Amino acid sequence: MKKSLYKKFTLTFLAVVLSGFLLLGSLVLVFAGQYWMDNNKKELLLQAGTVAGMIQTGAQVYGGTQLNRYAYQIATVVAGATDCQMLVVNAEGQPVACVGEYVNENTLTPRWVIEFADRSGTVVGTLDGVLDTQCLVAAAPIFVNGGCVGVAYAASPMGQVGAFTRQLLQLLLVAALVVAVLLVVAAYAMASAMVRPLQEMSQAAECLARGDFSRRIAVTRQDEIGQLADAFNRMTLSLEAGEKMRKGFVANVSHELKSPMTTIGGFVNAILDGTVDAAQQQEYLGIIGDEVKRLSRLVNTMLNLAKLESGETVLHPALWDLTESAIHAALMFEPAITQKQLTLAGLEELPRLPAVVDPDLMEQVVFNLMDNAVKYTPPGGTITMSGRVEEGKLIFCLRNTGDGIAEQDLPFVFDRFYKVDRSRGADRNSLGLGLYLVKTIVMLHHGSITVRSVQHAFCEFELQLNAAPVTMPNAAAQTPERSN
After folding, report:
1. Of 124, 143, 416, 460, which sits 20 to 30 A from 260 (CA to CA)?
2. d(Cα 56, Cα 59) in Å, to the nearest integer?
3. H/E/C letters for each residue in 61-93?
4. Buried b (16+ CB within 10 A) or exposed e, 193-205
């Protein structure tokens, strides 16, 4: 994987950048050539115009061969100063001044004199052989006493644009080579930074496959790779917690099955052996019946969970009042509440909380939440109920005082096999399925349930369901008195 990613990333990176350089270089060469042409046209026109103007001025002083010598001197000075080819001809095209390695002394074709006899301009060519190579040529007419007496030409070989572009191309190639080397180094560093955490994740995944959940990925960055590493760590933590819960669940189920079966077997054997009298037989049979019921509850819980998880459960929606279920649950746990001297607050103030749900399943939700609250509230503690309907939502809260749940355990409270007693030290025989069953049922009804807790202070569960659009009489008048 490492070599593959390095190779793909580096080659792709180089291909994209070098393609950009190629495109940029092509555009630069095109525009550079055009720039050379435009700039040289201006320069050559200026030089040709300068020579023509100075000859026109000299014509006021010189004449004949003196003017020709003066024209030659002017052409030589301008050509030497500007590194261009200079040609001055008279009205018949005969050369007056020829300066430059590419200018010969041939007579210029009359058409080139006629074409520029009344205007300045540029042309590309050899002026019919007067120039020994292709040139960019600028021409300016020479006027004396109102008539054209000749033309001054300034030329620059077209090969110069090729030399200019070659130099520019060399610079671009050197720059591209330097950039390519830097890109290889940068691509290697970037690929290494990206691949390293992926390698660590691959090794950690292999550890997970072997059942080792101790491996963690160091999160040192905030980009997508860092988010992936963080998500992998959270997944590992969740899998580790799930594995611990699974092992605990297997141990608990084994204990739950073994204990009643041992009790039943012992008492049955005693009865069959005839070692107990009739009065004891009745007592033993009662114990056997209780243990059978205990086994039945365990099996039913497992079956209900299996149905809920497989989607086989068929809802039977009906109008249901959560407050009535809270009252029933309080009555069912009255002995435990009295025994632990708990205070039950808020029940009398609960409003009607109507919803269209499966009454049997939601009764189980309220029962499990109440059972959880009573179980983990210390003697002398308080259980508080509250509820309201707002914006079409039924909201019911059940809070109990006590040790609460540790912050690191809160994300797993509703997980299957999670045992609340891990953090609060109660009910060692719990299977850790109650709150998982609660969340499964609530989600089946498109509701939500959340938990908040402060250690050594309280734990609160909040249930939200879609409220039914009906009005019921207040339940407080029908609520029986509670003994605390």
Report:
1. 416
2. 5
3. CCCCHHHHHHHHHHHHHHHHHHCCEEEEEECCC
4. ebbebbebbeebe
E strand or H helix that includes residue 464: strand 458-466
pLDDT in the model for residue 316: 86
The dihedrals phi and psi of 120, each to the nearest 5 degrees, come to -90, 155
- The answer to whether the beta carbons of residues 121 and 139 sit under 8 Å apart is yes
Is the separation of the CB atoms in 130 and 108 below 8 Å?
A: yes
Task: Decide the pairing of beta strands 382-390 and 343-345.
Answer: parallel
3-state secondary structure 393-448: EEEEEEEEECCCCCHHHHHHCCCCCCCCHHHHCCCCCCCCCHHHHHHHHHHHCCCE
Task: Inform me whether the pLDDT recorded for 225 exceeds 70.
Answer: yes
435 DSSP 8-state letter: H
Reading the block at residue 389, the tokens are 């309907």
Mean pLDDT of the chain: 82
pLDDT at 249: 65
Task: Give bridge partners of residue 384 from the DSSP assignment.
Answer: 345, 399
pLDDT at 453 exceeding the cut of 50 = yes
Partner residues linked to 70 by β-bridges: none
The alpha carbon of residue 169 and the mean position of all alpha carbons in its chain are separated, in whole angstroms, by 41
Q: Write out the two tokens for 183.
A: 């890109």
Strands (E), 257-381: 318-321, 343-345, 354-357
In this predicted structure, the answer to whether residue 22 has a pLDDT above a threshold of 60 is: yes
